[in-house]
Amino acid sequence: MSTPSKDDEYRVILDLLCCVMAADGDAAATEEKLIEQLLHDDGCSWSKAKTADVMNRCINRIKRDGVQATVKSASLDAKSLDAYRLEQLLWQCTDLAKADSTFSDREREVIQSIQLQIPQLRLMINAEDLRNSKNSS
Length: 137
Fold this sequence. Notes:
By secondary structure, the chain is mostly helical. Helix content is 79%, strand content 0%. The protein starts with 5 loop residues before the first helix and ends with a helix.
């Protein structure tokens, strides 16, 4: 498997974050700004115009294909990200879902779908479940 370029990584991250943002049917301006900030904090050097363009393309794809189909497509590309980056992405998804002061069931479902679509994340979930079951015994 080839290593994705940084632009490819940021596009995948943005796609999945947009899916979380769109999950509740209300893409709030605070959520869009948080996505820009999260990408910037990750070292993304895209201009605001490029970030907005990539975000708009993703939102249009979500409107055309639906959130779950977009999650599935972006998750295929996310499989090339390393485990640290994937774990960081889950935290970012959760932070984004809470950005508008709510954490809806639909946002939670999208985040769970992302976890289930990416094999490395399923392994992380299974390892955590195993640790929790050992601790409760």
